[in-house]
Amino acid sequence: MGIKRFKPITPTLRHTVLINRSGLYKGRPIRRLTAKLESSVGRNNTGKITTRHKQKGAKRVYRLVDLKRDNHGIKGEVVRIEYDPNRTCFIALVKYVNGDRRYILAPDGLKSGDVVESGENAPIALGNAVPLSKIPSGTSVFAVSLRPNEEAKIALSAGSSAQVMGSRGDYVQLRMPSGEIRLFKNTCYATIGIASNLDNFNEKLGKAGRSRNRGIRPTVRGVAMSYKHPHGGGQGKGGRHGTGGPKKDIYGNLVGKRTRKPKKTSNKFIVSRRQEKNKFKSFKTII
């Protein structure tokens, strides 16, 4: 779809970059495939804020997306590509030969009139959902199910994908979007392709109001707060009262420290962990 820029007639529009959705369907979604979406505004049942920086935002209708792709052996034609306000990836309305209509996550390059299918005998083609055991090495996939007969949970956002590295017995190695290499059961399903809306990371909202409409409240830097925050107070940046020290959150926990449990059951499926980015690494210019 690409991106959309504006003439700099105002300070806001000068830096605004949005996704060009001119080629998407502009009508209402299928009512049977929608549900009412209630916003918790980051509060629990007692009204206490448990998730910060959230608000209600603009009213949205939730689209029921088929993440399981259990309509095996039945071909379907893509009717149209739609925008989903609840996710960064676009969705596609598919009409199957048996009359059933479902929303699926649209891969990049899928268009109206294309035929998609799911199942063990489905061909390795764009938009088809097949078991990992049938996918050749080097293929990019998205919407991967973490366990057999479950909904997809891996690589669902815009532009994300995982790469099939090879098989090992009853398991298949996948390189995750984070760079981690992990084992999946070869009966888990994945969709061929890369999640659509590749330019999503280039989007710049341009103004605070557009972020508020998405249900996001402002985030204040710790160094701009009083001494009650570990980064606040004092004449210097970092640490309580400007004395320096490791970065912490408002609760005093170290920022950047691994929180994964060392004896977690799924650790045995991780072949290679993702590489940590060293923010303080110095680069020397070679002349």
UniProtKB/TrEMBL annotation:
Residues 42-118 form the Large ribosomal subunit protein uL2 RNA-binding domain. One of its GO terms (biological process) is cytoplasmic translation. Residues 232-245 have a biased composition (Gly residues). Residues 124-247 form the Large ribosomal subunit protein uL2 C-terminal domain. The keyword Ribosomal protein applies. One of its GO terms (molecular function) is transferase activity. GO terms for cellular component: large ribosomal subunit. It holds the Pfam family Ribosomal_L2_C. Residues 227-252 are annotated as: Disordered. Keywords: Ribonucleoprotein, Ribosomal protein. Belongs to the universal ribosomal protein uL2 family. This is 50S ribosomal protein L2. The lineage of its organism: Bacteria, Candidatus Dojkabacteria.
